[in-house]
Amino acid sequence: MEAGREENMGRVLLCLGRYAKKPYFMERVYINLYSVEELCYCLMKNYYLVGEEIMDERLPDWLEKECGLEGLAERLRQVQEEEGTVSEYVGVIL
């Protein structure tokens, strides 16, 4: 087994929010996402495809209505209102 891997085995990963009934469609990656964990994974693996289009109102609305993450949705809206950068926006999610 790889060094450091065995110490991670058996750990519980805390998931946030709930699994969405209606997915969030990430257009540039062409994938449906059903949880904030899937969103984080997708953002990390496809960071080079993330642009300003992610900063529309659909993502905070989806996180709030489908995943029950009102606080995260509100923080994303604040970044939008303050005309923050894409990296700031994605940083709030991650």
Protein traits:
6% strand; mainly alpha; 5 helices; 94 residues; single chain; two-stranded antiparallel ribbon
Cα-atom Rg, whole angstroms? 15 Å
Name the helix and strand elements from N-terminus to C-terminus, one letter apiece: HEEHHHH
The largest β sheet comes out as: 2 strands, antiparallel
Q: How many independent structural domains? A: 1
Number of helices: 5
Fraction in helix? 40-55%
Biggest sheet, spatial arrangement of strands: 1-2
Per DSSP E runs of 2 or more residues, the count of β-strands stands at 2
Spatial gap, N to C terminus: 28 Å
> Which residues form runs of ≥5 with pLDDT under 50?
none
User: Beta-strand level of the residues, as a percent range?
Assistant: 5-15%
Overall 3D form: globular
- Can you give the mean pLDDT? 87
Helix/strand/pairing category = mainly alpha
Give an overview in words:
- This protein is mainly α.
- It has one domain (15-93).
- 45% of the residues lie in helices and 6% in strands.
- Strands 1-2 form a two-stranded antiparallel ribbon.
- Helix 3 packs antiparallel against helix 4 and helix 4 (70-81) runs antiparallel to helix 5 (86-93).
- The model has no long low-confidence stretch (mean pLDDT 87).
